[in-house]
Amino acid sequence: MKYIKSFLLALALSPVTFSFAQTEAPSSATHPVAIAMVIIMIVLAGVILVLGKAMIAGYTTFKKKSEKASETTKAVLTISLLLSSFALSAQDSVPAAVATSGEWIQGISNTAFALMSSILVLELIIILYLARVSNSFFTTHTAKKRAVPKKKTIHWLERLNNTKSVDATSEAHVNLGHDYDGIGELDNPTPPWWQWGFVLSVVFAVVYLWVYFVSHSAPNQIKELELANVKAEEQIKTYLASSANKIDENTVTLLEDATEIAAGKKIFTSSCAPCHGSEGGGVVGPNLTDNYWLHGGTIHDIFKTIKNGVPEKGMKSWKDDFTPKQIAQLASFIISLKGTNPANPKEPQGDLIENN
Question: Considering its fold, how many domains does the chain have in total?
Fold first, then answer.
């Protein structure tokens, strides 16, 4: 209560009347900015009063510090309130006519504005000081009350291995007496992760044996290889079927499979025998069983001759009648006729080619 009485007394001594009785231009005290600054000063003074009482209450258990804080708060409040009163008195003492020259804010003298600003800054400094001291005191004493022993942190590797540090006495009880290069062997249990890994491996082994060797619900490695080979053969057949017609005179290869040769013979008998004979000895066309060739005797040359024909000698092009695969079969069959002895062969024609 004594702080409140002092605060009200200081306000009563202040010349703030907020009246408009002057006959001339209004004084600085009635200016809206000045009124706002005065109100702020009053509010800040109240804040200082509250902080001062809180700080005193915090130091009640420490008499010497409490008395010191009480005297400091009294001095701070008195200075703040007296400065507020002085600032308000100074505002009324400056006539409006004088204040209009070189004013920072029109209607308020520079002296009054500077004084009120200084008081506001001083009050803010006092508030920050009191808040800092009070906060430091309560934080320190609250931390002491709530202080608890710090819990020892356990490294994650120690948790994983479930290891424990033991002293020399405890270590002697688990020492097996085996030393290797100065390192003693202790009777420590295996880590939990190793034990669980062993258990899981046993469970996996039982499941594996049941699935692959008892119930046969899944193929083992040998069965998987057999299935993979079957699948590969199917893929090869599919590829050959799709790529058979991509053969030309540059990519053709000699077919030696009996099935391919038989397919070529069938085509030769139905389409080529009228000109070359059923045995290839030649009729209108040349003999195909000797080593003489008019247009080349390699698999590539024969494939090209069958494909494009020889129009100037009466041989038509067969590329529209046979697929590339069939032409390759026919060319391979013609090469297989080399060295045979047909009846009544035609005389050799063309160039001698030993190796075709």
Answer: 3
Handedness of CA 88, 90, 93, 99 (dihedral sign): negative
Nearest residue to 245 (alpha-carbon basis) of 185, 323, 301: 323
Top pLDDT among 295 and 155 is at: 295
- Over residues 226-258, the pLDDT tens digits come to 999 999 999 988 877 776 677 888 888 899 999
Cross-strand bridge partners of residue 108: 105
Burial of 123 per CB tally in 10 Å (0-12, 13-18, 19+): buried
Q: Is residue 9 domain-shared with residue 128, that is, in the same domain?
A: yes
139: CB partners within 8 A, 6+ apart: none
Considering only CA atoms, give the Rg of the chain. Answer: 58
Distance from the Cα of residue 31 to its chain's centroid: 63
Residues 263-294: tens digit of each pLDDT = 999 999 999 999 998 888 888 889 998 888 99
Of 103 and 230, more confident? 230
Strands 175-180 and 183-186 turn out to be antiparallel
Q: Which residues contact 27 (CB under 8 A, 6 or more apart)?
A: 91, 92, 94, 95, 96
13 and 127, same domain (yes or no): yes
Give the contacts of 133 (CB within 8 A, at least 6 positions apart).
Answer: 55, 69
Angle subtended at Cα 101 by Cα 97 and Cα 103, rounded to the nearest 5 degrees? 110
Tokens in use for 11?
């306000």
pTM above 0.85, yes or no: no
Say if residues 107 and 26 touch (Cβ distance below 8 Å). Answer: yes
Domain residues for 201?
192-219
3 state DSSP class of 40: helix
Place of tokens 């009640």: 60
**Across 171-199, average pLDDT:** 83
pLDDT of residue 25: 40
Q: Which of 85, 91, 95 is CA-nearest to residue 22?
A: 95
